[in-house]
Amino acid sequence: MITTAVTSTSTRRCHVMVAASFILLVLAFNGFTRDLIEARIPVKVNAAATVSIQPLADENGTGQVKTVAADTEEMFEILFNAGTSSAQCRGIARNATAAASVRYGRGTILITLQPQTYGNAVISLYSINGKRVLRGALTNSAIANRGLNLSKANVAAGVYLLSIKSNDGNAFSTKVMHNGGRLNINAAFGGDLSSSLNKSANSAATGTWTITTVAAGYVTDIRQFTPEAGLNPVKNITLSAVQNSCEGFTDGTEREHFGRMKPQFCDERDGQKYVYVTIGSHVWMAENLNYDTADGTGSWCYGNNADNCAKYGRLYTWDAAITACPAGWRLPDTADWRDLVNATGDSENAGTKLKSTSGWTNLSGVVMGNGTDELGFSALPGGYYVYGNNFFAQAGAAGWWWSATEYDGTGVRNIWSIYYNMYYGESDVVEDDIDKFFGLSVRCVRDK
Question: Which domains are present in the chain?
Answer without folding.
Answer: 3-31+88-196 (2.60.40), 254-446 (no CATH)
